[in-house]
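Could you please review the protein record set out just below?
***
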Amino acid sequence: MTFSEATIQDLVKEHYGLNVTVKALNGYDELNFLLSNEKNEKYILKVSNESHPFPFLEAQINIIQHLKKSNISDCFQHFSINKQGEELTKIVKDSKTYYIRILNFLEGTFWVDVKEKTDELHHNLGSFLGNTDNALQDFSHPAMHRSYTWDISRASEAGDNLKYILNHEKRRIAGYFLLQFDTEVLPQIHRLRHAYIHNDANDYNVLVQENKISGLIDFGDMVYTALINNLAIACTYAMLDEEDPLGVAAGIVAGYHKAYALTEQELDLLYYLIAGRLCISVTQSAYNASLDSNNEHHFITEKPAWDLLYKLIEINPIKAQDAFRKGCGSAGLINEDDYSDLLEVRKKKIGRNLSIGYKDKLKIVKGALQYLYDDKGRTFVDCVNNPSHVGHCHPVVVRKMQKQIATLNTNTRYLNDAITEYAEKLTATLPEKLSVCYFVNSGSEANDLAIRMSRHFTKQKDIIVLDHAYHGTSTVAMEMSPYKFDSKGGSGQMPWIHKAINPDLYRGPYKYGDAKAGEKYAADVQRIIEDLKKEDKAPAVFICETLLGVGGQIPLPENYLKTAYDYVRAAGGVCIADEVQVGFGRIGDHFWGFELQNVVPDIIVLGKPIGNGHPLAAVIVTEEIADSFNNGLEYFNTFGGNPVSMTTGLAVLDVIQDEEMQKHALEVGNHLMNGLKGLMAKHPIISDVRGHGFFIGAEMVKDRTTMEPAVPEIDIVVEKMKANGYLLSTDGPLHNVLKIKPPMTFSKQNADEMVKLLDIALSEL
């Protein structure tokens, strides 16, 4: 569609009898021209093609004529009449039909160019929109009933364009908000008030004079849709580039409500509608970029829209809903309860020894990738919840789970493609020797099964574990977890359990810098084997986490597993790598922890991250062990390997690989480690920083010489960090290691802020 300035000048003279100068302006999907006559009176001329059919252009005329009757008539452009007495002029050019219309020029400063936007201006914008929608209550036109990309009610369709967003983090955030739109908004749209709305009060369509709204231009996006969408759009664009976007939106909402009352249902959906509009915008920009568009209007809002989405995901939806409700004079939603009633019910109905974290308890009600929201409107960065491996409510994982659970979930007595497809993809990440999968429901169950298989294979019973190790909550897993059986209330060490020394390069007898430390620590495994031999016994199994979790977030010394495995195998035992905490790319350097030690286990046990919080775990063994276990006694697991769990596992694995999360863990993990080492140089209380990728421990001591654990100082730090929105926890035999195992979506910005806040917390001790 091309019309030169000279052509427009001739058309205006021919059809309107006006002598004007013409200047081309930018536009999204129409051609726009600025006209000026000899009196310096200005007009806007628009050229529309078939994408804006005649009935729709007629609707634009009718809606403006309707608004002429209101007390805000001067805030809208009015049409110039052509020589035939009509508002629209039909032009046929190159066998194509176009329509020309001329509107008067409205004075004012575009919202985007207003330097100082006051609270009063925000209120006035809301009031103006409320008055506009109020004036349109009795307006209707059939042409506005249309399928339109920029209608927020159709935000779900933006999901089709997510694939054009090449940045993994951005695609994930947009996908998350579209998932929330489908979850929170879509089921309620049909219950909302609907109206004929302008649908595009953006920062280039709103005009301002003397702190008031002087104009609203461009009705090209108007549509019949949910009434609240009009307000959502205005809020969206007014929030761009603002330090306090929620405060801005709340002011606009209050102004609107005063002019045209909103319902609580509308207010509670507004946060998600704003996010929906942003998702439409960024996905359209990505799609247009894929077409190599050179129209600057296709990208004019792209950067500020992304910036706002990043801010929005850090705003607890309850906080937003509370602000909108209170701004309209309704009761807020933030819970001021101290949870005493809930804690009392929990005490009566839930097992007494099921612990709850933190001095002041948290009630978490929603998750968003690396963020958690509580019912008091607070947002927390999750730094310890490693089961939510690819992020809380990751959109790809959730959608695949939803589809499968709506299709089929049953036991494994029937053929199903998902279980074999997952087994093939999972074993493709492993050494060829590890090739046979058994799917179960938890890491504890997986460790239990792994021990059962090992004992069956070796015909032995004794188990070698590391001191302070933890392998789960089943009876067998508890028996081989010194962390549990040596603690208060524990059952003590069973005679068939043997503890090898913890290979701790910081606190153990062999320190950092000892090139043979791995072999020296592994010698304790051989000591146990020799002691068993004196009793005519041999180990059934040696089980070891490939990085130690509750033992203190400890990477194993070089050659430790290689040497220990050699000793165990020489004695006829099986070597199990417990990857429940560290597998699936968390360590960054490799996909599996055992790869750091350059060994291949006989059995690996997987849990926690495998299903992103869904109850799923696995035992993967060699052909030889699998054949031995298949001795005629059926192995059956009611839920292990069910279609929903397998679909979940596949989705998690695909996301890790498609979003290059292992690489991300390495890069951001190294950045975070460097930040923590900087704090160690500044604060003597941090005595050791260790780990790989997103598996990090920072040990805290009162004195670096005596190594006295910094307790309760570490607990004070954890509470201070929680108060500032970062959830950390402690670990280690002495409870003095700060453990950091965030979801893999944890960003460099999160890392920088965490280090900054930790610096403050340590300085305040």
The chain has a mean pLDDT of 96.
